[in-house]
Specification:
- The chain has 362 residues and is an alpha+beta fold.
- The chain has two domains: 231 residues, Rossmann fold; 115 residues, OB fold (Dihydrolipoamide Acetyltransferase, E2P) (Beta Barrel).
- It has nine helices and 21 strands.
- The strands form five sheets. The chain has a six-stranded mixed β-sheet with strand order 6-7-8-3-9-10, with helices on both faces. It has a five-stranded antiparallel β-sheet with strand order 13-12-11-14-21.
- The longest helix has 18 residues.
- It is elongated and about 75 Å long.
- The protein binds adenosine-5'-diphosphate (ADP) and magnesium ion.
């Protein structure tokens, strides 16, 4: 096993497209790191450079203390699991998992030991003699992971391994992958566009946007302390609301004259923001029907446009001045109706203020 370091990593494709624009990242031994971001932000390119499948334009990749820029893929001691796991249809599950080791001339007894161990970890022991066509999607995905596990590589690389599975199976396999990692503890770099997958799996999440890293941190830190508007809006569902605002006299002032007192503990932090164009960031779960006892709360009066009961909570959608589709989460037993005035409470302990021009969180 090994740590992985990316230093000033750049990838420019023919035609001058810069897919990756000088990223730096240190991944620790045993760590599970997830690269997440919208389609086209450079996740796959980064992963393929680590694998050695894509030439590096500039910068360095270090695996386990060795710069591997010029090391061919098969000598990097990594195993990759793709979205298209492409099992060999004419081989049994056992043979599919054993194949890579056979090519590498491992002893038959060692191969047998490793395949059986991986089958046990993945809970597919009864399937070893089956052909891929007799497996469900989730079982095939397990076999693809088994192929990687038997290699016992320094690093696992996953590129959107769950995106071919239906929603329910995706959630199940997500848990499986986490369990497997807790067992084998192999350093893992996992790519997905799905922020929920990123949050649930990662020790640390790396949020990418347009070929750069916006922020790196443990899931809870990204959720509570996003550094930029992009991260604030990308992590969390439904997404954080952004309302145009100004700060004066220790309060956030919204366009309609509503003012929301800033908690004492944050006044100094926001003092220099007075007079600037700001965005007040508040997540739907922190914009709720009134709850007694919540400290540092402030009321906003709105008119719901659409009400969506979800069972455990109800989503209320409305617009608020320039801000379209603002969302609040209220208790399912609370009364709300489209077109009828509703008083919401902002939990100001969970407020964010952003510079409207730069998108930086203050
Ligand atoms: N082989 C290629 N040639 C030219 N441009 C490419 C190639 N592969 C990817 N790109 C471009 O590089 C950018 C990043 O792509 P990619 O790494 O696949 O993004 P992601 O995996 O985050 O969706 C995109 O703009 C994409 O169009
Ligand atoms: Mg991709």
């Amino acid at each position: 096993m090994a740590n992985v370091s990316l230093r000033n990593l750049v990838k420019e494709y023919d035609g001058g497209v810069q897919a990756v624009k000088g990223i730096n990242l240190d991944i620790q031994d045993h760590e599970f790191v997830v690269l997440v971001g919208p389609s086209g932000c450079g996740k796959t390119t980064t992963l393929r450079m680590i694998a050695g499948l894509e030439e590096i334009t500039k910068g360095e990749i270090d695996i386990g203390g060795n710069v591997v820029n010029d090391v061919p893929p098969r000598d990097r001691d990594i195993a990759m699991v793709f979205q298209n796991y492409a099992l060999y249809p004419h081989m049994s599950v056992y043979e599919n998992m054993a194949f890579g080791l056979t090519l590498r001339k491992f002893a038959r007894s060692e191969i047998d030991k490793r395949v059986k161990n991986a089958a046990r970890i993945l809970d597919i022991e009864p399937l070893l003699e089956r052909k891929p066509k007799a497996l469900s999607g989730g079982q095939r995905q397990r076999v693809a992971m088994g192929r990687a596990i038997v290699r016992d590589p320094k690093v696992f690389l996953f590129d959107e391994p769950l995106s071919n599975l239906d929603a329910k199976l995706r959630v199940q396999m997500r848990t499986e992958i986490k369990k497997v990692h807790q067992t084998v503890r192999t350093t893992t770099v996992y790519v997905t566009h799905d922020q929920v997958e990123a949050m649930t799996l990662a020790d640390r999440v790396v949020v990418m946007n347009h070929g750069v890293i916006e922020q790196v941190g443990p899931p809870q830190e990204l959720y509570h302390h996003p550094a930029t508007r992009f991260v604030a809006g990308f992590i969390g569902s439904p997404a954080m609301n952004f309302l145009p605002a100004r700060v004066a006299d220790g309060a956030v002032h919204l366009f309609d004259g509503t003012f929301l007192p800033i908690p004492e503990a944050r006044r100094d932090r926001y003092a220099s923001a007075a007079g600037r164009d700001l965005l007040f960031g508040i997540r739907p779960e922190h914009l709720t029907d009134q709850r007694l006892g919540l400290q540092n709360r402030a009321d906003i009066v709105i008119t719901p446009e659409v009400i969506e009961p979800m069972g455990m909570e109800t989503l209320v959608h409305f617009h608020f001045g320039e801000a379209r589709d603002v969302c609040a989460k209220i208790d399912p037993t609370a009364y709300a109706a489209p077109g009828e005035r509703l008083v919401l409470t902002a939990d100001m302990n969970n407020m964010h203020l952003l510079d409207a021009a730069t998108g930086r969180v203050l």
